[in-house]
Amino acid sequence: LISSATNSLRMETEILEKKLQDAQTQLAEKDEDKEKEIQSLKRLITELEFQLTVEKNNKESFLDNMRKEMKHKSDELEKLTQERTQLIHSLSQVQEENTLLQETVRRECEERYELTAALTQAREQVLELKKLSGNFP
Q: Span of the secretion signal (predicted)?
């Protein structure tokens, strides 16, 4: 009876040891799979961090370029604004000069008209004097 119980326990122990070995093998395989997955995820994280860095650098470079372009456009706008102001000032001076010249031409035309009228009147008087002096011996 004892021998039979011992054999039975020995068989049970062997079965349990076999199950324990199978469980340990499965656990080792799962650990290995998890380690592979962890390594894969670490590589993915590294790759994504690299892509993020590249994108960040690209955006910073793009922003720097945009800032430079905005500065250039701002400088150009300021220069054009100054040129416009100078042109407006020059135009104002030319308009004043033009107005002065027009007024001068108007006065000279009036003077010429007056002189022409006076000359015409003087000619008429000379002709009349000639007529009168031609009648007298």
A: none
What's the CA angle centered on 24, arms 32 and 42, to 5 degrees?
A: 15
d(CA 30, CA 36): 10
HSE-up of 125 (CA within 13 Å, CB side)?
6
pLDDT at 135: 67
Q: Tens of pLDDT along 17-57?
A: 999 999 999 999 999 999 999 999 999 999 999 999 999 99
**Helix (H), strand (E), coil (C) string for the chain:** CHHHHHHHHHHHHHHHHHHHHHHHHHHHHHHHHHHHHHHHHHHHHHHHHHHHHHHHHHHHHHHHHHHHHHHHHHHHHHHHHHHHHHHHHHHHHHHHHHHHHHHHHHHHHHHHHHHHHHHHHHHHHHHHHHHHHHHCC
Q: Which amino acid is at 92?
A: S
